[in-house]
Amino acid sequence: MRYKRRIRFGETDPFGVAYFSFYFDLFKEALDEFLRSKNINPRDFYRNPSENYAFPIVYAEGRFFKPLKYDDEIEIEVSIEEVRKTSIVFRFDGFKGEKVCEGKIVCVCIDKNWKKREIPEIVISTLKS
Looking at 13, 32, 44, 71, which residue is catalytic? Predict the structure, then answer.
């Protein structure tokens, strides 16, 4: 899935270059849209007490190759890099003509007691559809 948007003024430093922390907000935004594209409400993915699971983000990384500036349009390609027994690794590749950034977010499946649990099969099948 691809998510596209422009860099806003408040996301840039005094020189008009996007803050490094902005990329993590962008990856999270793109992840939410990826989940929606799979008919998963992000609110229910990150915290679903009725089904006794949640997916907190436990790891994030980013690499930045070219600066993004105010009003640039970026397109983020979101994919699932790996589904493990209790976690999912999401991958992000950002393009502005050429590749400008990449990153990962890892979400771990937990129960209501904050203990790791296996990912429910319905979540896996929905994400892979």
Answer: 13
Active site residue 13: yes
Closest CA to 23 of 122, 86, 96, 84: 96
DSSP 111: -
Q: How far is Cα of residue 18 from the mean position of the Cα atoms in its chain?
A: 18
Q: What are 40-89's pLDDT values in tens digits?
A: 999 999 999 999 999 999 999 999 999 999 999 999 999 999 999 999 99
- The residue assigned the tokens 């105010």 is 70
Neighbouring-strand partners of residue 64:
101
CATH H-level, domain 2-128: superfamily:
Hotdog Thioesterase (3.10.129.10)
- Phi then psi for 123, rounded to 5 degrees? -70, -45
Confidence (pTM): 0.94
Taking the C-alpha atoms of residue 58 and residue 72, their distance in angstroms, rounded to an integer, is 29
